[in-house]
Write a structure and sequence with these properties.
This protein is mainly α. The chain is built from 2 helices and no strands.
Length: about 60
Amino acid sequence: MNTQLKPKDEWEKGYYTWVEETRHKVEVAAQQLDRGKGIDGEIVVARLREKLCKAKENQA
């Protein structure tokens, strides 16, 4: 197996950066929902399914 591992502190730094970015995105999304700028869950699921189908078609 030819895999290079990052030192633990590098990995943790990347992880914590990702966590902070994700927290910020969730906060922004929550504020948008509070202002009534959300998308119906059924629409979101339909869009995700469409993307998955297209991805599967492109792999074939």
